[in-house]
Amino acid sequence: MSIGNSPPEDRPSVGRAIQQARIDARLTVDEVSTTTRIRVPIVHAIEQDDFSRCGGDVYARGHVRTLARAVGLDPDDLVARYDAEHGGRPAPTPAATLFEAERIRPEPSRPNWTAAMVAAIVAVVGFVGFTLFSGGDEPAGPPVAREDTSSEAPDGEAGPAETADPKPDPDPSVSDSAIAAAPADKVTVKLVAEDGQSWFSAEAHNGRLLEEGVLRAGDSRTFTDDKRIDLVLGNAGAVTLFVNGKEVDKVGEMGQVQRLSYTKGDPEQG
């Protein structure tokens, strides 16, 4: 009697092959998780052929390739077996279509929310500054009207100072200066999904999970740690990355899984 899900020629499934190779290499799941930066529950699930926690075929294939290297298996062979067991390799057409569309109309395709936010902050700060400077015993009208010099002649020199826009720096917590204003003794990383959505995971230097999930188009996340931040990006080409106030020039390609580490100072891939 044949079993519907049994691999051909009695060959072990992808998850069982990874598990057996790990055992043969005398590695624990914790050791493999530390080496690959794939969380322990996900490693356990993959070894049981449960890929539902990977976030989709693209991320599952990336995890299979990484685990294969860690336990000494051929990554290409194991990914091919995964594709055979799960309906074939995902078609690259959607990613190529998205890439072409973004090249044809890069700017109109997404609103510049940062510029709008900064403009709104400057307007509010200007209004508050104007109210503070004109909130004395006299109404704000006379100091602004330069023609009215008879009643303001003694304070003529003070007039320009009162009409000047103080424009204090915008609140760092809601502007692009948030990363640049971070303390120099910390590492700050900001993710912005500009060209599509991407699965992501962020961990502190001690292995504590800061957050993981799907970063949808237009969303952003900011993380700070004393020493190091470790990232996993499932669709690196869709993410714009800022590290310690500077934009990283090239994060990766569309559909590419990237594992990155950043520390204090200028952004350098770990």
From TrEMBL:
<protein>
    <submittedName>
        <fullName>Helix-turn-helix domain-containing protein</fullName>
    </submittedName>
</protein>
<feature type="region of interest" description="Disordered">
    <location>
        <begin position="136"/>
        <end position="177"/>
    </location>
</feature>
<dbReference type="InterPro" id="IPR025194">
    <property type="entry name" value="RodZ-like_C"/>
</dbReference>
<dbReference type="Pfam" id="PF13413">
    <property type="entry name" value="HTH_25"/>
</dbReference>
<feature type="domain" description="Cytoskeleton protein RodZ-like C-terminal">
    <location>
        <begin position="196"/>
        <end position="261"/>
    </location>
</feature>
<dbReference type="InterPro" id="IPR010982">
    <property type="entry name" value="Lambda_DNA-bd_dom_sf"/>
</dbReference>
<dbReference type="Pfam" id="PF13464">
    <property type="entry name" value="RodZ_C"/>
</dbReference>
<dbReference type="InterPro" id="IPR050400">
    <property type="entry name" value="Bact_Cytoskel_RodZ"/>
</dbReference>
